[in-house]
Amino acid sequence: MSILQEFKTFAVKGNMIDMAVGIIIGAAFGKIVSSLVGDVIMPPLGIIIGGVDFSDLAVTLKAAEGEAPAVLLAYGKFIQTIIDFVIIAFAIFMGIKVINKLKREEEAAPAAPPAPTKDQELLSEIRDLLRAQQNK
């Protein structure tokens, strides 16, 4: 089997396509959550904590000299990334919790009782006929 044929077999497998779809959806979901964090959650949180913008916090390790830019230790961006991660992880946790709850409700829904077998139907009819004869 040639390398080209092996690659074709690998690339066309269902698992590979499912994984690609998952990655694309995951990237889109990441953009949604990033927007939620950056545009919806962080502005009010910034007001609550006194308008602090973590991304601007840094320590200058070496001042700018001529054309060379300053060397900064941007620990604020790191703090901001940690906050983003915690919020994203919590959002994913809540989403999975809702999905698991829906699955449990679906599994807990009682199944319809099985229909009586032909023998059971005949026995029920016989029983009903015998009761009707006894009541006469």
UniProtKB/TrEMBL annotation:
Family note? Belongs to the MscL family.
Query: Where does this one sit in the cell?
Result: Cell inner membrane; Cell membrane
Which molecular function term from Gene Ontology is one that the record holds? Answer: mechanosensitive monoatomic ion channel activity
Q: How does it sit in the membrane?
A: Multi-pass membrane protein
NCBIfam families in UniProt: mscL, PRK00567.1-4, PRK13952.1
**PANTHER family with a match to the protein in the record:** LARGE-CONDUCTANCE MECHANOSENSITIVE CHANNEL (PTHR30266:SF2), MECHANOSENSITIVE CHANNEL MSCL (PTHR30266)
- How is this protein named in the record? Large-conductance mechanosensitive channel
Its transmembrane ranges are 21-52, 72-96
Keyword terms? Cell inner membrane, Cell membrane, Ion channel, Ion transport, Membrane, Transmembrane, Transmembrane helix, Transport
Cellular component GO terms, alphabetical: plasma membrane
Per the entry, what this protein does is: Channel that opens in response to stretch forces in the membrane lipid bilayer. May participate in the regulation of osmotic pressure changes within the cell.
Q: Which InterPro entries did the record assign? A: Mechanosensitive_channel_CS (IPR019823), MS_channel (IPR001185), MSC/AndL (IPR037673), MscL_channel (IPR036019)
Q: How does it assemble?
A: Homopentamer.
Superkingdom of origin? Bacteria
Q: Which SUPFAM superfamilies does the annotation name?
A: Gated mechanosensitive channel
